[in-house]
Amino acid sequence: MTHLQAGLSPETLEKARLELNENPDTLHQDIQEVRDMVITRPDIGFLRTDDAFILRFLRARKFHHFEAFRLLAQYFEYRQQNLDMFKSFKATDPGIKQALKDGFPGGLANLDHYGRKILVLFAANWDQSRYTLVDILRAILLSLEAMIEDPELQVNGFVLIIDWSNFTFKQASKLTPSMLRLAIEGLQDSFPARFGGIHFVNQPWYIHALYTVIRPFLKEKTRKRIFLHGNNLNSLHQLIHPEILPSEFGGMLPPYDMGTWARTLLDHEYDDDSEYSVDSYNTSAKDVEKDLSPKSMKRSQSVVDPGVLKRIDKNEEENMQPLLSLD
């Protein structure tokens, strides 16, 4: 075992060897091979290439050198192409702070039976008057940056549960193709985290419809790990034990405290509430969409008509039955 593996338990070391092809005897050579590829992308500013940083990309791609390098390049390219998103990229940034305090994201205290961190999102908590969807994405990315420092989570990964209870049609209409693309690129294509499962619960028909639209643009591996439970929490419990879930998910623990993770990141600044409104923030969702790269814009033209949800009027919203019953 090298010093780079010092934070891993014996069980996780074995898991890294069997599932990720991690070999302590060749670890430094593996890292150097990825580092040597940096010269092939002079258009990208690689701000970090230290051993510990590159290692998380190797783990995310099961030690396939080229795939790890491609992920590393996409990580920095995403940040170059969306510079405004990463200005004031810290927990005390007003927009990020408001999102964090509303539980975007939350993190459960207990790991699942595979050692994965369970992240939770309660979609209806989004207060559109106080922060943007871009703020939520920034808060999630910032949180992942903090969590991925843990080598155990680099190996074991994460599980995400999204509760769509009381998420309105009006809120859903803000999930534009450009915004969804920004999130997919940031989380699926450009971050070194292993997601073992993404669980939708209590999703209304319009979220199911939205997922149907974006599904073709997700990687096959991602699609296989998305579970639409609807109101059937028993199917969720077959994958995540109710003993470690809060009562909102039919679990045996008390209701989730939305500020738990925010207090971890913000510490003594959690209760310092500065005046903030969406209009005062110079990086609105609209601004970011305008600054999308040509590559992204080309992809967006084939995703979906921006008015796909808005064309459905209020009467249809109230009367239309779910596209598919998953209960």
From TrEMBL:
Disordered as annotated region, ranges = 276-327
Q: Name one GO cellular component term.
A: trans-Golgi network
Asked whether the UniProt record includes Membrane among its keywords, one would answer yes
Tagged with keyword Glycoprotein: no
Its subcellular locations are: Cytoplasmic vesicle, Clathrin-coated vesicle; Early endosome membrane; Golgi apparatus, trans-Golgi network membrane
What InterPro entries does the record tag this protein with?
CRAL-TRIO_dom, CRAL-TRIO_dom_sf, CRAL/TRIO_N_dom, CRAL/TRIO_N_dom_sf
Its GO biological process annotations read: lysosome organization
Alphabetic keyword roster: Cytoplasmic vesicle, Endosome, Golgi apparatus, Lipid-binding, Membrane
Q: Which Gene3D superfamilies match?
A: Alpha-tocopherol transfer (1.20.5.1200), CRAL-TRIO lipid binding domain (3.40.525.10), N-terminal domain of phosphatidylinositol transfer protein sec14p (1.10.8.20)
Q: Which SMART domains match?
A: CRAL_TRIO_N, SEC14
Instruction: Please give, as recorded in its UniProt entry, the membrane topology of this protein.
Output: Peripheral membrane protein
Q: Which GO terms describe its molecular function?
A: phosphatidylinositol bisphosphate binding
Identify the residues that the record assigns to the CRAL-TRIO domain, covering every copy: 96-257
Q: Say what the protein does.
A: Required for normal morphology of late endosomes and/or lysosomes in neurons. Binds phosphatidylinositol 3,5-bisphosphate (PtdIns(3,5)P2).
Quaternary structure note: Forms a complex with clathrin heavy chain and gamma-adaptin.
Identification of the protein by name: Clavesin-2
Organism equals Phrynocephalus forsythii
